[in-house]
Structures are given as C-alpha cells and as structure tokens.
Queue: 2 jobs
Job 1
Amino acid sequence: MSSQRASTPDESVREISRAVRDGERSAESVTRAYLDRIDALDDRVGSFLTVDRDGAVEYARKLDRRREAGATLGPLAGVPVAVKDNLCTNGLRTTCASRLLESFVPPYDATVVSRLRDADAVVIGKTNLDEFAMGSSTENSGFQPTRNPWDLERVPGGSSGGSAAAVAAGFAPAALGSDTGGSIRQPAALCGVVGLKPTYGRVSRYGLVAFASSLDQVGPITYDVDDAALLFSVIAGPDPHDDTTAAPTATNGSESSPDADRSDLHGLRIGIPREYFPDSLPEDVSLPVRAAIDRLRGAGADVREVTLPHTNVAIATYYVLANSEASSNLARFDAVRYGRRIEHDSDSLAMMAKSRSAGLGPEVQRRIMLGTFALSAGYYDAYYGKALAVRDRLRADFESAFDDVDALVAPTSPLVAFPLGSKVSDPVSMYLCDILTASANLAGIPALSVPCRDAHPLPVGLQILGPRFSEERLFRIGRAHEELSAAPLPRSPIAMASAEGDAS
Amino acid sequence: MSASDWEAVVGVEVHLQLATESKMFCGCPVRFGAPPNTLVCPVCLALPGALPVPNALAIRHAIRVALALGCSIHRESRFDRKNYFYPDLPKGYQISQFDRPFGYDGALELPSTSAFAGHRIRIRRVHLEEDTGKLIHDADPRQSVVDLNRAGTPLVEIVTEPDLRDADEVYDYLRELHLTLSYLGVSDCDLEKGSMRCEPNVSVRRRGATELGTKTEVKNLNSFRHVRDAMRYEVTRQIELIESGGSVVQETRSWNPETGRTAAMRAKEEAHDYRYFPEPDIAPITTSEAELDAIRSELGESPAARRARYLETLGLPSEHADVFLHDPAMAALFDATVAEGADAKAVAPWIVGDLQRERNERAERNASTDVLAIAPASLARLLALVADGTLSTALAREVLTAVLDSGESPDRIVEERDLAQISSADALTPAIEAAIEANPRAVEDIRAGNDKAIGALVGHVMRTTKGKANPALVNQSLRERILGA
Ligand SMILES: [Zn+2]
C-alpha cells in the first residue's frame, strides 16, 4: 500500500487537489484514507447508502496513472466527493432512499457528476436523504436514519442529511446535495458545515431525480467557503440537457478580487430581514447570528433592517408548489420500466398502484396526495394558481429589498439539531424547519449557509442571500464571516475520531 | 320525424406526426418499423433525473402549420403537463400545451370544387405535444409489452370548432387539410402508417336547435373514407337512438370497417382529470415578429392560392388543375414550363396526358428515368415546334419520348431524325405530282365533287414524305393543283 501520509479530515479540497496534482500524494492514498474512515465510523452515523469502494479506488488509480504519464490533473484532482443519492451515477445504484428504487442502476451520469469526474474528483459513494428529498431530518429515508456527527442522538437535518453528515464526520472533504426548500442549507447549518443553494438555473438539474422542478438546485457542501466556491465553479454553467439552465446576464455589483483584504466589507450594504428574526427564535440560534452580524458591521458593512412582507405565506406557498410538481414528477415511478414491481393479475394500472403503494414511503405518499389535490379540477385556482401568484409577490419582495441592499443575512434554520424522532409524528412542525430557507427557492435566488464558529454546543448556520447570479458576492461575505470569527473552524466529535477507533 | 329534421355537429381533432430527424424532447431518431425499444434514451424512457429539451425544428414546423391554417400565434407560448397513468406513457404525464398553444383562432376554407365550397371551418388551436409509446398485446401470451420507439415523437394537434354539419363536409375538410399540410413538408401525412390520425367527435341535434347534443368520439379511422362512413353511421345511430326514446352516452367509440359499425371503447364519464400545469422543465418559448416573418416566407403557395391561380388566372380545366394540386412534382414542371413561355392551356394536357403515360410505361418496365425531370425549356420548345407547325402532334410525341430517353434537346432530335414537317408548298410539289399521277381515279372523283376522295391522295403524300408533310398544307396544295382553285 501507499507509504504516503494518510489524509486527515482537516484537509481542505484545495489542499488535497494541490497535493495530488503536485504528486505529493496519490489519489489512491487519499481515497483509501477516506474509505477507511467510512468503514470504521459510518455505522455510527449512517451517512452513506452506497460506498463505491472498488470503483473509487480504481478511478483514483487511473488519475494517478494519468498524472504519472505527464497529464495535468483537474481542479478537483483526487478529491473524494460524496454524492447525494438522488443524483444519477452511471453504473452505481441510485435509490433516492426509496425502497421502490432499491436496485435501480442508472445508465448515465448526472451532469454535475460528470463535471466532477471531468475535474478529476473521485465519487466515493452515495449519501442518505429523506426519500426523494422530502423531509428536513433524513429520518424519512426508506433505508436508515442518519445521525448528526455532533450528537448522535440528534438529526443531521435534511433532506441532504447524509451529505452534510459525511462532510461533518470527515468521511469526505466535500459533498453534493440538492436544495428544494432548504435541503442543502438546513443540514449544513445543523451539521456545522458550509452549504450553497445556487441561483435557479445556474447548475444543471439533468440527472437530479426531480422533486420540484421549479425549485430544485444542486449545490456543494464543504468545510469552508473557499471549497464551496471551488466546487461551485466546477459544477455551474449552462447545460444543453437542461433547458432551464442559464448563464449570468450581468455581474451583480463589484466583487473584491481574491487578494484583497478578505475581511474588509466597506461599501457593502447588508440587509437584516425583520421577518427572519421572530420573537420565537430561540437564543441558541439568535445570539450567534446577531454576534456574526455585529462582526460584519464592525468590518465596515452598512447593516440595515429590511422587510420581506410575504415571508409569512412563503412556507404554505412552497408546500403547494413543491407537492404539486412532485405529484407529477413522481408519476414515472410506475414499476413498468424499472423499479420494484408488485405483480397484479387484473391489469397494468392495478400493478402500478400496488407497486407505488408498496414502494413509496408514507411522507412521499402524503405529498403526492396533497399535490394531486392542489392540481385537480376545481381546486387549481384556489391552490396552485394562488401559490403561483404569491410566488410572484415573494420575488417582488426580494427585488425591492435588493434595490436597497447588496445581500441579506439571517439564520439558516430556526432550530438547532433536534433529537431523532422528536418531529416525525408531526409533519407540520417538520415543514416549519424550511421557514427561513424556502423563500430563496421560490425566488430563485442563491443562498449560502456558513457555520457560526462560536455557537455551542450545537452548530448554527448564518444564511447569506443575494440577487440572482450573485454567488461570488455571497462567497465574499461568507469568507469575511470566517475571517472575522475569533474561534477556529470547529470539528465534530466524529471528525476528531481516527479510523483506528479511538473516538468515544 | 325524418332524418332531415336533424343535423349533425362534428368537430375534428387531427394528430400529425412531424417528420423531424429526432424526437420532440431528446436526440433519439424518429423512425418507423425499427425493432422494439431500440430508439430510446434516458429522456424518452423517463429514467429518473432525465429532462426534456424541446426540438426547435418541431416548434418551427408547428408554427408553420398554425400559420398555414390562418392561426394567430402566441408570442409567448409554453408547454404544460397532462397527467395520467398508462403503461405506454413513460413519464406518467404527456408534455402537451394547454392555454398557450402555438396557434389559435384559425380557419380553413373548403375549396370551390367541394359541394361545401366557401364553408370556413374554424380552427380552435394548433399545438405541439409528444406521442406515446405503443402497447403490444399479442407478443406474449401472459402479458402486454410496451414499445417506446414512438414515445416522444413530435405531434401537432389541430382542433376545429364544431363547425361541420355533414359526413361529406368532414370528408372534404380532411382532404383539404391533408392537401394543405402536405404542402408544408412537415410530415408525410400518411394515414395508414398513423402519421396523420383523425378523431372526429359527433353529436346530433334537431335542426334549428342551438345547444349541442351529447357527443361521441370515434377512433380507429385510417382513411378519410372510413371517417366519412363512420360519421354517416354514427349520425344515423344517434338519431335512431334518440327517436326511439334513448339518449346518447358520451363515450369513445371504435370504427370497425368490416362490419361498418362503431362500438363503445370506454366511457368518458370516468374521464381523467388531467391536472394540467405549466411544464417547469421547459422555459417559455417566445417567437419574435422577425422569426414569424421568416417562417411565413418559407410557407410557399397554399393549395387554395394555387387552385385559384390555375383555375381563375390560367383558366385550366378543373381536371388538370386537380392533378397539379395533388402532384407537386407535376405542378412544379407545369409552372416552370409556363415560365419558359409555354401556353398554360397547351402545356397542361401534355403533362397530365403524355408525360403521365410515359411515366406509367417507364414504371412498368422499371426504368429509372424520372420523366418529370425533363428540362422545362425542352418541353416548352417542343410545344413551340407544334405551335409553329414544325412538328405534327404525332411526331411531337415521338420527339418527347426521344427527349426523355436521350436527354437531348427537341431541336437536336428533330434535326438528327429529319423529322421537321415539310411546310413549304414548293418542297411538297414532287410528292403532290406523284400522288396525282398514281391515283387518276381519285382525281376524277374529286373533280366530280366527291371531296372525300382527297383522303387517298393525302395518304399517298404522307407515305412518300414519311409523315413529315404538314397535312393541312398537303390538303390545300392538292386542291389547288386538281381544282385550280
Ligand atoms: Zn430518447
């Protein structure tokens, strides 16, 4: 085996790819080090549904051979990446955490996955999620719950809980998630890592198993903002396979160059949306977020209060639209061409109904029924039609806020990680986890969640939102937030544990 | 009450498969007759995560159809999802168009040759959608199987208002529609292959009534004659049903051409709620005025305009005009020959008669010559040679065959074969003298007033000149010589 130094979970994507490109480390040794950690520790966390041990090592070896033959490797050279299991991976099982797709093996890569591979990343495995990304705790998985690496009795958030937990546990330096109403940002916040929900259309959805097509976006989950920016630069960009992808039409404001003082925010106007700080916001969330805002002000940002008046109807709007689209998107899972089939004598429609009833979990069935109802004749105008109209109002809220400020800052989640099982019997309280995140999806704007380093004992996310295509500005503010924090980047207890098993 | 107290009310939906290289939302080829499930990809198989990308040429074709049918065009159009479960529908929804179709509010006028000439059949909408796959029930005794080669083939749907009142009117509408669509070159419009499908819906009401009766929809119609027969049957069936105290059930019925009857397929009462909503995977499609102008400029002459030009402007008899209307290649040759200066009424019978005969003969012997590829200038020249008396009609036919076989110009063939008519009296003199000398009896008869006897003399001259003599001139010269007139 390799005599080179094994990876430790402290390493960033940038360090790993530089070391592999320069030949200091082999891609294989990096990959094996992370696989060893997964093998030793993931039975405590449950972040992976499929670990592609052989495929990952083989791919890493190919990278090493290419480098030895003189090739210059790409920007993610030898970087193990965990991929949410609702992104298609050619030849590697993709289940969406649904029993119905238990043995579905796609014959193609999602565009984001092929862009990772083109950048010489190593897909290490597929991470757990709420079935078809429907949920905020990863407890709705058809296979297993995922636990929060900071406290194994608590949820990691969801639906990209497996990806966020994998990064927080040091099982991969980076992961891909998908965000429909907060599914990247909320688990990133609850697991103390960085998560980006890009501008709608900035990243291809081709090969992302659709939950709600007009809201879904794929984005990175990483330790820090620079890594998130690097992954984003690899996966973003128009895709001929996705008609809704778009290139930025104009740069949104002037962004500082990388070598400028990273913590200088003079000239930047930051809005604090009043509605995102309700009286009910618990202090363990509000205090670290307010402290972070004070530091941004201290660094020269012009911080002022703004209002987003339709915030109170965002969550209802979100659930009408998301479930309506989901009811249609999930119709293809009829067990005719793939998926687990329950045979039925009478006719094919009965076979479809039986297979769907048996293969889809209760939360998925609940949402399909809600969405079917909202689209049905006689109810369309009252539900779906009205939700579309409210969505326009929400967009207008953000547009007028961005007339006055360059970005908005708020908490990502109204709650820190909650105990496993504490919300599963109450879907509505679970739905309220998205209350601070769903608006960004409805408006199609980018939003970044960055850990507040002084939050204790559980992580809290600071959410930064900007106008469409303003990802670079969000990264700039996120970096400043990191620089301004006195505390070092915190690590979860699982991440501190070694693969030899000295964690307790 | 008699049947004449009733009137039929018919609307027609036509589905037209577009002849694009690739499918509506993926790159798979559109082809008929390939082995099952070989023309498929993640998109048309509706694999998880696959997304549709609209075919720009199909959109252009749909707009052409809409413009050709006089429709207004939505400057911003969009696709919608029509949701229902069926094994031949891979996504569990069909991507179609709901309230922003490409075309709306058009009309097609029935032609002057129809018994319903001048009737304007209003077109409610022209929209684009994707075809389903095909269920195959007889491949496996235990279960049905599905072939998704056809899934995702672009279809244009053309929907009329319920403006048709008679089975023959429906027939004439469909014929004119077929002609109009076939001019656009967007589809092969083949009913038997299913690339053009007609689904009429029919109801009856008492003459003078304004509200509509309960309608039935009829399927399985793969010729226009079937449509007409099915409409006749269905109208009679409905009238008899109502007159005998029954009532029409809203349902889909299937036409059986063997029995000449329709039979219920499925009741519409349990009609699907299709839960249409805007397709979120496809951005709205905007069509600029400039793009519309460009598409308009590609449309070419419509059958209606061509019919008017042939019948009214050029004064062709309707049987010739009709052949040209339905045979674009012949029409093209006709137009090009007229453009070379030929007289329209003179050239039409040559193309419809002589060239068509040559075409048939060659087809019989499997000759590869395309007779319609004759240079229009050659055909025009041939007609000019007839007009100026250089060639008799009979010789002109011989020259035509030679032109087709050799590709040489008519002048060259006339010269090579020495076929020019002898049209000068002096050149004919020796033959005239010889005929008179050889037929003294006939000469006497003529002088005695028996005019018919001149035939024998003309025949003699034609034989000696190998048919090249101008018969009129021969006649005239003989009379002058014999009668001194
Ligand atoms: Zn295809």
Note: The pocket of zinc ion is lined by residues B 23, 26, 28, 40-41, 43-44, 152 (CB under 6 Å).
Job 2
Amino acid sequence: MAHPSVAVLEYHLAGYRRVWLSTVASSLAMPILFFIGMGLAVGSFVDRGGALPVPYLQYIAPGLIAFAGLQIAVGEGGFPVLTNFKWQKVYDSMAAAPLRVGDMILGRLGYIAIRVMVAAIAFLVVMLAFGTVGSVLAVVTPVVVALVGVASAAPMFALAASVNSANAMAVISRIGVLPMMLFSGVFFPVEQLPAFVRPVAYVLPLWNGVELCRATTLAMTTTWPAFVHVAVLVAWAAGGFWLAWSRFRKRLGS
Amino acid sequence: MTGISATPAVHGHGLATGEPVVRARSLVKRFGDITAVDGVDFTIRSGEAFGFLGRNGAGKTSTMRMIGCVSPPSDGRLTVLGMDPVREGASVRARLGVCPQEDNLDLELTARQNLTTYARYFRITRAEARRRADDLLRFVQLDDRAASKVEPLSGGMKRRLTIARALINDPEIVLLDEPTTGLDPQARHLVWERLFQLKQRGITLVLTTHYMEEAEQLCDRLVIMDGGRIVAQDAPRALIDAHCTKEVVELRFAAEDHESCADKLVGIGSHVEVLPDRLLLYTDDGDAIVPTVYERGLRPSGVLVRRSGLEDVFLHLTGRTLVEA
Ligand SMILES: Nc1ncnc2c1ncn2[C@@H]1O[C@H](COP(=O)(O)OP(=O)(O)O)[C@@H](O)[C@H]1O
Ligand SMILES: [Mg+2]
C-alpha cells in the first residue's frame, strides 16, 4: 500500500488537474515575454560590450527558468498553505485522518515538484524555440528546477504555518522574491554585486539553481563543483522541511 | 462498504456491544489561562449513542477534539479504543470518523472527489474508494450531486457530505460535533434520520447538539456540560425523571413584571423558573393547576402545558437556558 504522503500528493494533484492547462499557458507566456523584452531588446545593448561569454538572451534564459521554479514554489508554498490552515481548514481535515505532519508536508512538496517540473518543461520548449539550448544535458533541467522549487517551498511552508494574515504572507513573499531575483545572477553575474552582498547570493537557493541551470542548458562550468550547488539546495529543502515540520506541529497540536 | 450497505444491526468490528471504547478520567484541557475542560469523567460504550449537551463555550468541542486524537489532553487520563490518543493517535484515527463543528471540505473539488481523496488517507485502494464514495453519496442522498463542485452546495448538503466523509473508513466510532446546527428543519431531519440508521448498525456515535428533542430520541446516554465540567450524566429519561416534574406550565405575560408574577405563584407546583420571556411552572399535573393561576389574579396572555424535557433539566442544573433566547 502506498505511503500516506502519496495520498496527500494525490489530493493536491486532484486540484491541479483542473487548472494545469492554464498554468502551462502562463509558463509559456512568461519566458516569451522576458525573452523578447529583456533577452532581445536589452540584449542588443549588452551584447555590444561583449562582457558575457554567451549572447545575453542565452545568458538570462537559464536564470529565468530557475527563477520561474522559485516563483511557482513561493506562490504554491505560501498563500495556499496559509489558506489550508486558516480558511479552508484542509490541514484540520487531514489531521483527523491517520496522517502525520510529515506526510502532509511531503505530499505537498511532491506536488510542487511536479508542478514546477511541468512548468520547466514548457519553459524549456520556449528556450528551444529561441535557440538558447546548447547542451543535451538540458533534459535534466526540469529536475534541477524542481529541486529549486522544493528548496524554496519548504521554508515557505514554515512561514505560512507561522503567520495569520494574508497581508503578512504577501509582504514577506514579495520582500523575499524580488531581491532574490535581482541578486542571484539571473540578469548579471553576481561578481558585479558589491562584495558585501555577494555572500548572500551564494547561500540563496536561486543562485545555486541558476548556476546549475547554466551548466545543464549551456554546458557552462559552475562556480563551485555541481555537487556543492546541489548540496546547498538539498540543505535548504531539508532545513525547510524540519522548520515546517515543527511549525505545522505547533499549529495543529493545540 | 460493509457498515453501510450490509444488513443493519450487525456489528462488523468484533467489538462486543457494551465494551468501553472511550474512557476519560479527570480529563483536563487548558489553553493558556483558559480551562476549557475542567476534570471530566465519562465512559462511552460500544454501540451506544452518547451525547454532550451544553452552551457555547462549555467545552464540548475541546472534549471531542481530545477524543479525536487531534488535541493532546493537558491533564488526566484518556483512552480511545484501548489506546493512548497521543502516542497511538494515528492508529486510533484510522478507526474513527470525524464530522467537525465547521465543515472543512475542499470547495474546489467535486463531492465525489472529496470522498475519494480522503479515502486514500486511510490506505483504501482507488477502486474501493470509488465504490465506497458512491455508496455513501447514495446514503446521504447526494448521488445526483456527485460530480458537482462543493462550493455551490447548500449548508445541509455540505453537512451531509462531511458526514459521508466521516464514514469513508467504515469507522467504529463516529464523532459528530453539532452535526445539525444551523440547518433548516428539513435538512436537520434528514441528518438525524441517517444518524439513527448508523446507530442501528451498531456504530458508536458520539455527538454534541443543541437540539433537545433530537438528543432525547437519539442518545442512549448523555452528559450535560457547563463551564468545562460535567454537571449530570445519565439516560435522557432518567435525567428528566431525576431533576424535573412530569409536566411544565409555560406562562407568558403581556406587560407585567415577571418577578412579581413569580411571587404570586409561590406554592403552586414544585417550583418556578423565571426566563426573560416567560415563566415556567413545574408540576406533575399541569392542567390541574392552571385554574389556580387565575384564582391568584394573574392574567397570562399565553398558557402552554407540556411534558418536561432535557431543556428543563439543563435549566434546573445550570440556571440558564441551553440556547440563548
Ligand atoms: N484553540 C483554542 N485556544 C484558546 N481557547 C480556546 C481554544 N479552543 C477553545 N477555547 C476556549 O475554550 C472554551 C471551550 O470551548 P469549546 O470547547 O469550543 O466549547 P463548546 O464546543 O462547548 O462551545 C471556550 O472558552 C473557548 O473560547
Ligand atoms: Mg463547539
């Protein structure tokens, strides 16, 4: 018989099944807009300087695919989790069944991994169409992006289980996501950042994900050995899981 | 599912009827400074319908949540199905059905999906989950709404769906926290009829309610809670016999001061209760004493003689009506 966390995954997939087509549509639209607006338009300036090893469009594409994973994970790991605690009381209904907190968290992380992977596949199709894929290793990119998703979603779960208002949730998500997008090497190498900001980028899940995506789609060498980048992401996922686990237990155990 | 579609009155769980299935001793639940449940003792036996009666805030939900193994007791002892609800919570919950005070269905999924996805939490196979879902939707008369989303369903339909969900694992004990509160009389009637059927099938029912007549008919035994304590527990009829006269005369007065009317009634019947909108005169023979009321010069605008019930027991024990007038 399947593990109880698989039952939780199935529950989330039942909801996803109704909306997946529209999420794929937006996963196609987002890169197209960015590629035209940033990649081609801004790229025509950047490429004149010749400071990057590859055309600007190719440079930002792997950054954006990793960012898309982060964005979906923050969205799915934040507000809906708060809703499931506070308004829809989904977690109360799960707690009344023979599920454990770990099953609830694992099941939703699994769902987010799948959701992110599907989006990454759609994104990859757009990258292919724009000619930004230069390596067969690109086929593993969706898995890398899913790892970025899990690494970002797990700590979001902990946050969502700790706050009480939709407002707090929205503010924190925005404050978290925007600097990550700007300082994680999506649009320019982190070496361009002031020295004191750089270490922040190094520990963020997004930068490590961006590095890995550049390796898989463009065969660029990573700043650190690939396994180190993977290890940072796994550490975020594991640490986030542990935090979420204790926050969930606290919230459900009154 | 065996418990629902099989012939009634057969207990399918190997528990002899009458075995203790829930046992609470000096059970306490605190939330910070608030003591929601203040040292209660009760034993619920297999196959019986056991009720918790009390006003809002009496501690009913807190007690139900401890039995449901989702809220750890602060003090005292509690066993459910012979197990410890904290250490063996998941094993206990596998054998319980829970209908919480507030529906927590997934509004975006269909009625049927709510049941099939929930069934999977109990390690029920997909095929079996679909079969049970269809059986249960028929049982609660929602089979024609199986494929519709939950959101637009009426309150009564949502409640029935929540009850169906509580039955998906063929539970030995079903916990129902105010299963009919807020429903219109027709919807309420349908729910109570279904609960009667479950009871006849030997399923142990533990419920809280505000509706006296229904509690009187359905519950084999009940406890009356007030301020986190149990103030009485017994069979409904025994409680009424122990605490009340056989009949009650309800007197309404158009304009007069109730307290002074009550003074004039002293000596008639066994005692008088003063409520904001009426006086209750307790006696074993209502019709016999109504003329005496008029003889004392009182001119009530309304007179009603009725049998005494749990509401009167509650009033007698706590000094307040069960549902705010
Ligand atoms: N999670 C909680 N945190 C703090 N106080 C609570 C909590 N749950 C219940 N209470 C308090 O405990 C008391 C009993 O509540 P409850 O068990 O819900 O009563 P009932 O179900 O009989 O209305 C109330 O005073 C209520 O405010
Ligand atoms: Mg309650």
Note: Chain A touches chain B at residues 1-2, 4, 6-8, 10-11, 14-15, 18, 88-90, 92-100, 252-254 (CB under 8 Å).
